[in-house]
Specification:
CATH class of the largest domain: Alpha Beta
Helix content: 25-40%
Largest sheet: 9 strands, mixed
Number of helices: 10
Strand content: 25-35%
Distance between the termini: 29 Å
Mean pLDDT: 92
Low-confidence stretches: 324-331
Number of strands: 20
CATH architecture of the largest domain: 2-Layer Sandwich
CATH superfamily of the largest domain: Pseudouridine synthase
Shape: elongated
CATH topology of the largest domain: Pseudouridine synthase
Radius of gyration: 23 Å
Length: 331
């Protein structure tokens, strides 16, 4: 099983809990998720299995979309309502709120912004995760980092008397904390804010309406599970795409570079709309998915001298199986 499952994460499970459950269901150890969801959050959690775990590093360019309910009036140490209350807004501050004010403040977070990760997060500082500092009562300097929010739509605002809440749909880049967005918006409004409910409705090509529940996956036959997964290369829609012949395919899977003329390019990398700060860490404008027929060989980097293997997925036996299949079809 070398593919990716679009799993619907339920509330109350950590992302690691989902991985552990998947290992039991599929009977394999080599499994990883592509983006952490907080325990009480729900929604899309792509799970990579087998050799597909090797593409996780290339998903940094994917945009994620969340539907969030933000509670107004109280600040929490975890920046969500499951933490410890640390501050309360005054009745006067809440009474002064208006829907127009809420919408205007939320609109101010759209675009490229600087955001400081929350203390209760897995971000590492000096080799130690922030939540470890928080649990031990230690303080540490947290540097703000650049994130992008290309779209943010406020869907509903409720201002008292019992409920103070704003619901919104947000599309953002990897590394954006919706908890921090709610916290910062609440501070800008002068009434504090925290996540009340969070649902990830899409990440890259994976959509919530297509997601599979863990219990349904457990009831599937091996054939049904194979049909429910997508190949490792499927989410890498921003990388270029090219094909090569059998002899050069064997060279590639053995780690040898290919001449430029050995690769027939079908499409170049598509990085339109991707913020520059996300492109700084990788040569994304030179990365190509390489195929022999319908066999995915791996990721190659285009250089002046040709194509260099940077991530090989196929093995020699995969190519031999493909050749035998072709001979049978021809016969």
């Amino acid at each position: 099983m070398d593919g990716i499952f679009n799993i619907a994460k339920p509330a109350g499970m950590t992302s690691h809990d989902v991985v552990s459950r998947m290992r039991r269901i599929l009977g394999m150890k080599r499994i990883g998720h592509t983006g952490t969801l907080d325990p009480m959050a729900t929604g899309v959690l792509p799970i990579c299995c087998g050799r597909a775990t090797r593409i996780i590093q290339y998903l940094d360019l994917d945009f994620k979309t969340y539907r969030c309910s933000m509670a107004l009036g109280t600040a929490f140490d975890t920046q969500d309502v499951w933490g410890r209350p640390v501050a309360e807004a005054t009745a006067e501050a809440l009474a002064a709120l208006s829907e127009d004010r809420v919408r205007a403040v939320m609109a101010g977070f759209q675009g490229q912004i600087m955001q400081r990760p929350p203390m209760y997060s897995a971000v590492k500082v000096n080799g130690k995760r922030l939540y470890q500092y928080a649990r031990s009562g230690e303080t540490v300097e947290i540097r703000a980092r650049e994130v992008a929010i290309p779209a943010l739509t406020v869907e509903r605002v409720v201002l008292g008397p019992e409920t103070w809440q704003a619901d919104f749909l947000v599309t953002c880049t990897k590394g954006t904390y919706i908890r921090t967005l709610c916290h910062d918006a609440g501070e800008a409004l002068g009434v504090h804010g925290a996540v009340l409910a969070l649902d990830r409705v899409q990440t890259g090509i994976f959509r919530e309406k297509d997601a599979i529940r863990l219990e349904d996956l457990a009831d599937m036959s091996p054939e049904e599970r194979a049909a429910a997964s997508v190949p490792a290369y499927a989410p890498l829609i921003r990388l270029g795409r090219g094909r090569t012949g059998p002899a050069d395919a064997f060279r590639f899977v053995n780690g040898l570079p290919l001449r430029e003329e050995a690769v027939a390019v079908e499409a170049g990398p598509d990085l339109q709309g991707v913020p520059e700060f996300l492109l700084e860490k990788g040569a994304y404008d030179r990365l190509y998915l390489l195929f022999l027929g319908d066999t995915f060989l791996g990721v190659a980097e285009k250089r002046e001298t040709g194509y260099l293997p940077v991530k090989v997925f196929a093995q020699g036996t995969d190519l031999l199986i493909g050749e035998r299949r072709d001979h049978i079809q021809e016969a």
